[in-house]
Each structure stands twice: as C-alpha cells, then as structure tokens.
Fold this sequence. Notes:
With 376 residues, the chain is α/β, with parallel strands linked by helices. It has helices spanning 41-47, 77-92, 151-168, 182-187, 202-205, 207-216, 245-257, 282-289, 301-309, 321-324, 328-333, 360-375; strands at residues 10-12, 15-17, 21-23, 53-55, 59-60, 97-102, 120-121, 131-133, 136-138, 144-145, 172-176, 225-229, 263-267, 292-296, 315-318. An eight-stranded parallel β-barrel has the order 3-4-6-11-12-13-14-15, surrounded by six helices. A two-stranded antiparallel ribbon has the order 1-2.
Amino acid sequence: MSLPDLFEPTKIGAIDVANRIAMAPLTRSRANMDGVPSPLAAEYYRQRASAGLIVTEATNISRQGRGYALSPGIYTDAQVAGWRPVIKAVHEAGGKIVCQLWHVGRMSHVDLQENGAAPVAPSAIQAGELIFLETGPAPPSMPRALRTDEIPGIIEDYKNAARKAKEAGFDGVEVHSANCYLLEQFIRDSTNKRTDQYGGPVENRIRLAVEVVTAVAGIWEADRMGVRLSPLTRSAGDTPLDSDPQGTYGLLAERLGKLGLGYLHCIEGQTRGENAADAFDFKGLHAIFGGKYIANNSYDRHLAIGAVSSGYADMVAFGRPFIGNPDLVERLRRDAPLVVACRATYYGGGAHGYTDYETLAQEEEAWGEHACKHRG
C-alpha cells in the first residue's frame, strides 16, 4: 500500500481538502474596531486558497472576548456581511475555510471592553506580556473571576458565533482552546484556582472546553468542527504550563474524541519556537482522540512530508510561511525558496505586507521580462 503524500487530497472530517497543507490562524489586525474584516481580506485569503484548509485568523465570539484592537469578530450581522466576500473568494479559488472561534479571557484591556469593564477569566490572576490597543501596546488589565452563573452566557456566546459562522458560509469552525486564552485558562491549574464545578480536579478544569465544543456541535455537524490545543505553549500572557500536561490534555482529547469531531489541531511546542514534539506525546494524544490530527509548529518541507507519510499527522499547518508566500503549497511542492515576510507589517496597516507578496509564477515572469530586456 502506498504511503499518503503531503500533496494528495484527503478528507478532514466531512471536509474534502485538495492537499494535506493547512494555513494556520494568523492574526493580521486589519479589521475595523467593530470587528468587520477589511475589504482587503478577500484578496488576502483568496491568494492563499491553494492550502488544503484555511483556518481563519482568531475571530472574536463577543465584544467581551476581544483582546486586541483591529481583530475580526463573528457575532454581529455586519461582521457576517464582512466575511461573506472572503468566503466567496476562497471558494471560487477552489479552497476551503473554517472560522476559528476565540475568547481571549484575561488577555484584554478595559479600553476594549464594553463600558470599560474588567476582562473576565477563571480566576483573578493578571496576565503578563502585552495586548494591543488602537494607541499601541499595553499591559493586560486585571481580570475578574467569572461567576458560576455567568458561564452559561459564555457558552451561549460561542453558540451565537457558531450560528453566525454558518450564516456567513464557512465550511466549518475551529474552537480555539489554545495559546492560553479563555478556554485554556480554565484547563490549566496555573490559571484556574476556582473551587466550583469548573475548578480543582482536571475533570472540572476541562469542563468548560467540553461544554463549549458540545454546544457548538449542536449548531454545526461535529465532523465539520475542530479544536486547537497547545499543551506546551506559554503564550499569551506568559502563562505557566499545567502541572500535568500529558494527563490533562490526554483526558481532554479523550472527551473531545467521543464527540466525533472532524479534527484535533495541536501546536507542538511554544508558538514561534522550535517544534517540541519530542517533549510531549502528541502521537499518544492523537491516538486517544481517535480522529484526524493536524500538526503545527515550525514544520518545514522535510518534516511535513515525513509527518504525513508516516501517518503521524493527517495534515500539517503552516503559519508564518503563508504570510510571505501566498502560493506556499506550490513552493513546497517544487522545493522552491521561501520568502521571509517582513515582521514590521505583520499587524495593522493596509495592502503592504498583506496582499502584495508575489507568487513563484509572478517572480519567474518578472525575471523572464528582466532577462529579455537585458538581452535586448
């Protein structure tokens, strides 16, 4: 039997994908302050539609869930209208796109919250690092602990966002339970000091994540859903790891697997750091989950080909390489050089550093024209 190839089509849950290369979520801060995607977003995502699956930039499920200025949302009709041309452009280019549902929890600031309210979290523990306001970077505000009777409202916000994503026309949704945002703040005993049914033993700490995913599966078919986890990352907020990552995330993967989800998407190490798959049993996590597995974090062409051909992963997600290489799939296929994107244009701004990176074909055409002029 032949081994699967990185560039062959497959199915991720119910979603047919043209290859095993996913575009990981990438915050680009081009939306407006009402969370409506920039008109440029349609072109940006269309250019990258050769990815087997696009996972959108993290997308706020509510005003309360926002922690970074100019990040998009999926909880108002205006936001739905802003996403529709993006989805249409991706589909017309032959791609598939799912919306990543996001609540930042304690990684927010009073200036971003309605009526200057404090951000919410499982426990009143202030985050480190910085968030971004319209005026620039700022430390996160002190959060308040969510009351137990408020948690059903959080779950309802996820359900509303899931409905809006369906109205917009996405191919599915991914629940963001990684990078130390709200759901992972509940999961880790380093940030969850609660004494109610959402704190204490691991079964309680994973409860909210499971309840959210279960609720969203009431809106979407479970096989069009994924969940993103990051057992080893300390961002955002310089968050300490859980005291037992393997046990905690193993139990969570088991519970998620029983829901029949389309995929599990794992950041294998510290975001933007080296791949740390040798420091955690992600293969075991995949086995416990039982469904499709998307591997992510500092993969290159060689590692990605090996991960898929060995059966370790069903798909490999690339993040930053997709910023400077809209045709990353073709560049990987041909083992062509990759453009290193300018970090200064990652966040905010307009078309520069967003939709003006050239494809390999455009580069080759430009070189051909240059050669002809030189010979002339």
